[in-house]
Amino acid sequence: MPPYLPIYLKDHHAAGTAGSVLAKRLADKAIFDSTKRGELSTLAEEILVDLRTLEDVMSSLSVPPSKIKDAAAIALAHIGKLKANGHLRQRSPLSDVVELETLMVGIEGKAALWTSLAQALPGYPLDFEALRRRAAQQLDLVSRYRDSAAQRAFTSVHLPGIR
To answer: Hey, what domains does the chain have and what are their CATH numbers?
Structure first.
């Protein structure tokens, strides 16, 4: 096995763990109608399935997740709730924008993971291309929701001298 692959897998596992926490929070808390929240719940479930798929790959390669990296990633995901969002005690429309953008970055990283594993593990009995395509579909959904959240959060913004 290439010497850097275990490190890479552990890093992606930690990021995927944090992404799963973030996706679940968005599904539970985002300021969207019930249809979009339902789609976000489905997305959160898919992200968890993707994480379990990564765990299966890691297990088959005898690479255990890093408890320290995973714990740090989960802590950072929870600390993200404390960021300034224009409200002291409640979620604001800005929370949705920032969290959806963060999730977009994570999904892009996951797509890159599947591409890298397809190259690093030729002949591996998993359809990495199908996983990459699913990540692309997830990214499309999250991007559209981010755009909607940004429009909601920033529609009342008026720049000086611009009408």
So the answer is: 5-154 (1.20.1260.10)
Q: Pick the closest to residue 112 from 126, 132, 130, 127 (CA basis).
A: 132
Virtual torsion, Cα 37, 107, 129, 137, nearest 10 deg: 30
Give pLDDT tens digits along the chain (163 positions).
Answer: 889 999 999 999 999 999 999 999 999 999 899 999 999 999 999 999 999 999 999 999 999 999 999 999 999 888 766 665 555 566 778 889 999 999 999 999 999 999 999 999 999 999 999 999 999 999 999 999 999 999 999 986 655 665 5
Give the whole-angstrom CA distance, residue 139 versus residue 12.
17
- What DSSP letter does each residue of 72-123 carry, written as one string? HHHHHHHHGGGS--S-SSS--HHHHHHHHHHHHHHHHHHHHHHHHHHHHSTT
